[in-house]
Task: structure prediction
Amino acid sequence: MKNYKLTLQYDGTKYSGWQKQGNTDNTIQGRVENVLVHMLADERHTDIKSIDMSEYEIHGSGRTDAGVHAYGQIANFKADTQKSLSDIQNYLNTYLPLDIRVTQISEAAPRFHSRLNACEKHYRYTIDNKEVSDVFMRKYMTRLKADYDINAMKKAAELLTGTHDFKSFCDNKRMKKSTVRTINKIDIKDTDGIITFDFYGDGFLYHMVRILTGTLIEIGTGKRKPDDIPEIIKSKSRADAGFTAPPQGLALVEVRY
Amino acid sequence: MKNYKLTLQYDGTKYSGWQKQGNTDNTIQGRVENVLVHMLADERHTDIKSIDMSEYEIHGSGRTDAGVHAYGQIANFKADTQKSLSDIQNYLNTYLPLDIRVTQISEAAPRFHSRLNACEKHYRYTIDNKEVSDVFMRKYMTRLKADYDINAMKKAAELLTGTHDFKSFCDNKRMKKSTVRTINKIDIKDTDGIITFDFYGDGFLYHMVRILTGTLIEIGTGKRKPDDIPEIIKSKSRADAGFTAPPQGLALVEVRY
Result:
């Protein structure tokens, strides 16, 4: 069995997120696994029912929510196949829908795990604040027209950077594991009305990037002050943080190992 | 009655092109006129049926085909309204769907006509020749993976440039008016597998840009030679030119006056 590492790009608009949900296959993971199982069945001249799907589970570096996009999601899977790397990539890209692409494939070390070995993730949230909303990128940005105070948001971003218990920024109330995470950097830029928030960290809790963005938006629009951040972190209460920004503005850009 | 000039951006994917078709309103022109008539009826506190729609026809600089996009289509219309320019723009952008935007509005001279006064149009055709097709711009490019000879296409483009009778590049068999047009420039670029064809000319016949592109593609892939161009022009027969490239790769970029 070889261990394969995939880099995936997807438009999350039509999907229920990365993670497989029972028998529905409207997830990225479900779509990719489905094509993979067909590939293995084809190669063995057997029926897909004879392939143990659990054996070929694809592990993503993290779950992206419904509607969230990816420029570089990383996933790995183990399989026994005689196909070359480019043949596997071509098979996947031939049978996957056009809004999911395998942009790279390589053989990884046997113990490589896309989630457990990830050391840094880079997410980008994009807000369209142009005078007139963008037609061509409209599905990959959140339209939120406002008079943003970029410097206030930058100041708040600095206060969020570092190792903190981010329980206030997590939408999973029954989270039993540690909610301590490290944010290495948050870059905020305004390029002709397109505002981007680039988050770099060792990992992010459920909805964490979207709640961080929602909180930064509330600071940028004057509803909160940058100095509120330490209190929000300290309270460990989701109710004290900002709103959960909508999914379409979010994309997983890169995972570093 | 003032004469208003609009700059429009649209994603043509879902529309039957620019030009209104009888009672169907799945056209860009139909959508814009419909909102405009509502605006005028609102202002006059009358029913839309009392507004003579023919009076408020919007003249586009040219018809874009079904599925063709625009970064800067120009249209003009005459109307009697007390609304300011920005109020008209806001009204249109509030009620138009998000895949049609009015990016600019200005008052034009009384005799300004977007089609009759246009002196140069710029169309861009984009081909996705990347190793793996692009997810996010997939609806605005045509996927045609091949080993293109860019220099052969550039040589052919030079032979197409100038004033010629482009009858061979026109899909309207019953065209009674002159088929002589001037192409000022054709720029062809390959940027990391994204091939763009930029056409600048005083006007283009029905399907002309798509047939020019199809012919250039056939030259780039070795099915024809650059030196075939003079013969194709001379024959004045549509059958002698290349295929009509699909609409989704085409966009009207700019109209100059």
Q: What stands out?
A: Chain A has five helices and ten strands.
